[in-house]
UniProtKB/TrEMBL annotation:
Family listed: Belongs to the LysR transcriptional regulatory family.
Transmembrane segments: none
Gene3D superfamilies: Periplasmic binding protein-like II, Winged helix-like DNA-binding domain superfamily/Winged helix DNA-binding domain
InterPro entries found in the cross-reference section: LysR-type_TF (IPR050389), LysR_HTH_N (IPR000847), LysR_subst-bd (IPR005119), WH-like_DNA-bd_sf (IPR036388), WH_DNA-bd_sf (IPR036390), YidZ_PBP2 (IPR037402)
Keywords: DNA-binding, Transcription, Transcription regulation
PROSITE patterns with a match to the protein in the record: HTH_LYSR
A single MF term (Gene Ontology): DNA binding
The name this protein goes by in its record: Transcriptional regulator
Amino acid sequence: MDYIALSRVSLKHLTTLHVLLSTHSVTAASKVLCVTPSNVSKILSQLREQLNDELFYRDGGQLIPTPLAITIGPEVHKILSSMNGILHQGQFDPASFQGSISLSMRESTFELFSPLIRSIRQQLTQAQQIQIYSKEQMNFESLSRGQVDFMILPHDISQPPTKSRGLVWRQLLKDEMVCLMAGNHPLARQQTITIQDYLEYQHIGILDKDLSEPYFEQNLTQQHQPRRLAMSVADFGSAALMCHHSDLLLTSSKAWADCAMQAKGLVQKPLPFEYGQVGYSLVWNEVSLNNPSLRWLHTQLTAG
């Protein structure tokens, strides 16, 4: 072990690097750390020298991390999480918590879990902020690097969700899949739809580059034929709005469709084929639970 090299890099350096990876700005990082921008720039300069890498390069008003900075981000997060657990041992009091917490999810997922998030917010009366990011903005890599605390998303339970190491998954809610269509759609008058009905019309797909191809897509292709996708969007909500104004079909979460404002007026039909098991899961970086506040938040999110 190189004790001399280790002695030149402090928690101050690692904390600054971690915050810069989240903010991409010296000015924003200085506000988070309650120091001057020149102080952040000085620490960054020291890190560049110690690690023999630029770590960030400027693109307009943003700092873009180098491959090395991205690679070491998860390891830096582990070190800081462990140290944070040592510094903040003991019972956590939500009423006196003055920090911030962050979640990543699709817009439609927020609609489904908003009562739970409201309950958490009511308990964190002194918290600076509860930040809710879109999954497109804060993805699995962001979770690995500690830029976001937890992620909630719908997915195919039967498929391996992601190859990202160090991430833990826990199912929060069992769900079903349904076929949604406009009230004036030709299939809306039928009590049930056949596989021929389902494949006759064009569909709206949901984009998610981080997850494996859903089982229902694979099974549909193997047993029958692929769906004809007319368009793909990032979320159930925008897909449902398109359903209202077209004859396109949407295969979606039933739990979401039962409560979502965008789905009001759309007709639900059971899917005419096997689609496996689906649900909503909580995803987190295993080292995050070293933090007492995140352990408490994890308990709240999984209590149901």
